[in-house]
Backbone:
């Protein structure tokens, strides 16, 4: 497999002067990621996190990762998967209820505007949520709590910064002393790749990309795998588990997160207009067909 050079992490990165401007309110007229705002959608979001926090255990994630690592369910291209996301709405997201393919394109186009020379980052944005196809029957039809939402480590204490933390009291792992210290079963600086993270679309898409031989740089794979790990990249929790490589890649995750969060809009991207560009990137970094 060809090795793609790591993206530059210094002043050589060219950012467009015609920059994307992050809005102050979401598509519902509320602050982004406000999990306390009173609305019917917020009630559904809280119920989602209640189920997520009760059911995402170390043993569940270990078993599910082993099952999905077989990649024996579907064979298709990246773009075919993008089109499947028209059938998916993320119930954990308080900021948007549009089909997911629009969120992917909004994110990718916003990054493309500001970082025109980082084509690997444009493609990373396009594919970062493709793992949400796990909600569809042909991919196992997993429940929302096992596919979407913020992610967090298992095997160590649940940090207070995790959204709706109160529901962890009913998680079986909270009663296991080995899992309830700061480091838990891990060693400080062990590296995130050695930490069991709650199962969802992030880890699945990382697995699909890695096992199918993508030539995206490691920073792109890191963004895909940890973009929902908000306790880490927003609250600064669990940094003690990171190694040097994680800290380098976090720079790109912080850049990406601005666009992932704030590009969500009711203004839709013209799919036919941008499709040829993204097909060229898919062809550059991925095989024609992937195992899912």
Residues:
């Amino acid at each position: 497999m060809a090795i793609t050079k790591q993206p530059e992490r210094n002043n050589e990165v060219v950012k467009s002067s015609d920059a994307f401007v992050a809005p102050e309110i979401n598509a519902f007229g509320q602050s982004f990621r406000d999990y306390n705002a009173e609305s019917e959608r917020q009630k559904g979001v809280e119920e989602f996190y209640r189920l997520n926090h009760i059911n995402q255990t170390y043993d569940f994630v270990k078993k599910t990762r082993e099952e999905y690592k077989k990649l024996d369910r579907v064979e298709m291209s990246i773009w075919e998967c993008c089109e499947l996301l028209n059938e998916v709405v993320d119930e954990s997201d308080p900021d948007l209820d549009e089909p997911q393919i629009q969120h992917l394109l909004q994110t990718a186009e916003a990054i493309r505007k500001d970082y025109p020379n980082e084509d690997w980052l444009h493609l990373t944005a396009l594919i970062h949520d493709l793992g949400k196809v796990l909600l569809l029957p042909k991919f196992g039809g997993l429940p929302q709590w096992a596919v979407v939402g913020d992610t967090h480590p298992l095997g160590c204490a649940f940090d207070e910064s995790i959204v709706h933390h109160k529901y962890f009291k009913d998680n079986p792992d909270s009663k296991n002393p080995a899992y309830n210290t700061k480091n838990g079963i891990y060693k400080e600086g062990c590296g995130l790749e050695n930490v069991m993270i709650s199962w969802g679309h992030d880890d699945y898409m990382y697995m699909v990309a890695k096992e199918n031989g993508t030539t995206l740089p490691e920073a792109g794979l890191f963004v895909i795998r940890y973009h929902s790990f908000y306790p880490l990249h927003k609250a600064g929790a669990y940094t003690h588990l990171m190694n040097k490589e994680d800290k380098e890649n976090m720079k790109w995750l912080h850049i990406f997160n601005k666009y992932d969060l704030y590009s969500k809009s009711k203004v839709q991207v013209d799919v036919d207009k941008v499709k040829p560009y993204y097909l060229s990137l898919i062809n550059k970094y991925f095989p024609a067909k992937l195992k899912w």
